[in-house]
Amino acid sequence: MRLRDTSEVEFLRGVRQLLGEAGGRVRLGIGDDAAVIDCPPGRSLVLTCDASVEGRHFRREWLSPHEIGERAVRCALSDLAAMGAEPAAILLTLIISPDEDAALAQGLIEGGAQAAETFGARLAGGETVGREGPLELDVVATGFVEPGRELTRSGACPGDVVMVSGTLGDSAAGLAALTGTWDAVAGSAGTLAGSGGSRRRSWDRAHPCAHAVEAVIARYKRPEPRLALGQLLGRSDAVHAAIDISDGLARDAGHLAEQSGVAIVLHTETIPLSTECRTLAEHLGLDPLPWALTGGEDFELLFCVRSDAAPAIARLAHDSLGLPLTTIGEVTEGHGVCVMHPDGTDLPLRQGGWDQFRST
Amino acid sequence: MRLRDTSEVEFLRGVRQLLGEAGGRVRLGIGDDAAVIDCPPGRSLVLTCDASVEGRHFRREWLSPHEIGERAVRCALSDLAAMGAEPAAILLTLIISPDEDAALAQGLIEGGAQAAETFGARLAGGETVGREGPLELDVVATGFVEPGRELTRSGACPGDVVMVSGTLGDSAAGLAALTGTWDAVAGSAGTLAGSGGSRRRSWDRAHPCAHAVEAVIARYKRPEPRLALGQLLGRSDAVHAAIDISDGLARDAGHLAEQSGVAIVLHTETIPLSTECRTLAEHLGLDPLPWALTGGEDFELLFCVRSDAAPAIARLAHDSLGLPLTTIGEVTEGHGVCVMHPDGTDLPLRQGGWDQFRST
Lengths: 360, 360
Description:
Chain A has helices at 8-19, 65-83, 102-118, 170-179, 188-194, 210-221, 227-234, 249-260, 275-284, 289-294, 310-321, and strands at residues 26-28, 35-38, 44-53, 86-96, 122-125, 128-130, 136-145, 161-165, 239-244, 263-267, 301-305, 325-332, 336-340, 346-347. Chain A is α+β, with helices and mostly antiparallel strands and 360 residues long. In chain A, helix 2 runs parallel beside helix 3, helix 4 (170-179) packs across helix 6 and helix 6 crosses helix 9. The two termini of chain A are 40 Å apart.
């Protein structure tokens, strides 16, 4: 049934049934003028919002409604991870054409609610706004942090080393697989709107790269907000600054450098790439590095830490979270980001990665 | 300069300059992965979001960029008023075409920041997302309330009287003046998209209604979130349920009735109308009642209160806030809303007021 043929009141009744009673920190959930959340004593509120726009951040042929909702909430939660916060409540607003099926809206909400639950948060409200045009999901994520323990972008010091969690470039490779634009890897955002998937290759399951393709597509579809790592880093005085990689390594390192008033040097040979990413790049005869440097949406944490503390933190993340951390550079006096090759030349950075206004 | 020709980093630098350092409860504002807000001890968080979409909630020919930003934030703050919360921090996300002028974006943000300041909150972050299509402002409003003192929609009891603040219908009359669709007053939302203002009448300053037109347009342009009243009502045990009137009196009374599991009877002759609203309706030969019943966006508070406590609350609101409260009905057993004429007939309620999916 189309949303136009249902009433908002009936629709909301369905959503409330779907989500059940308030719980966790959410004292009052969907159905009132606002949500009411219990604040844990002695904690600060961490508050962020993140919009997912059809054609810009996702396409319906790539993701089911459930996956679109799940992805939107996971992306928003990554901002909480980058602050070292513990998630509490999520609001999800759908901007959707009244001609869409109510089942689409329900799928989006179910996916969002499930992502919230997965990470210890709860879907506590939101809005549904009818308008023509591309589907849009606006997510508000809230969490709590011990005052002074929040990770910011602004504390990096010369002498710190730069570390990153997990592997980079998989999400961009997955996006390239979905769009079929393997070589248009710089600025994945920009390629989304322009390319119609016309050159999509079909990957037979028997193809030697089939597993690798599935793996990188899964990284695009279901990003992992590094919430436990963020909280672990927030407890250490040696961690001076952090950001999640949503715009691409080069650009996000730039945000860290700018906010901290320092320069960051990255070494290309140390950037962690997954086996799948390497396999695919090799098969395609491509350099995987641009996926990692400018692809974006890896949602790994990039952080600056006192150099003598780095090994212990890497050990702790490995032992308690099973998550590898890699040292990929260092903080120096100056400004900007320099990406160095092993032979000592520096990589001229293409104007890539996510930029909300530019498409190249 | 078009947004496309500026960079996000430069744009954000401008925004930070505009908004200055963090302050109030906002410990960390714009420029990081999330905002950090100090929670006052022993308070609960109240959290809401509200989207303003061009063509649906406003048109650029009616409002300056500053006014659009201001209005979007004022509307979101009204949800906090309806909960009895004290505002703390606002996030403002702009969804805007990269071809728009950067001055438009700045005007929107300035307006939003000013509305926040006016009501004791602070603009603490947000996002700017480039996409083609209608302009959109997504506002997140946060505030705090003493646990258990929040006003909800669900506590109305049979025997309560129904009260409303201020006057109703002005915003719908203002919208009708702006669109020139004086008679299409039921469901102001629905008329917005369809009517091109083609029948707009020009109001000479010398016209006897010129002042009234200006006054009702101002009510549409700059809604007043009843924050002080909400907090006053929240302190009284006699106030059992509340909502802000955004969808129209009839529909919002319906929300209260549904959430409380009661029926609400409203008496048309008691509904408070401004002199300006009456003057205009008389001049146009229209009944002003539909503006009040189904027009929406008055952002007055509608609440249910123990009948013996109503006079004291009205006196308190008058004396401390200069705000008139009017008793317009009562709560009974049953369900739904009944609108009674003085002669004892009940008004068949048109399917009007805001509905996100329907346009009639």
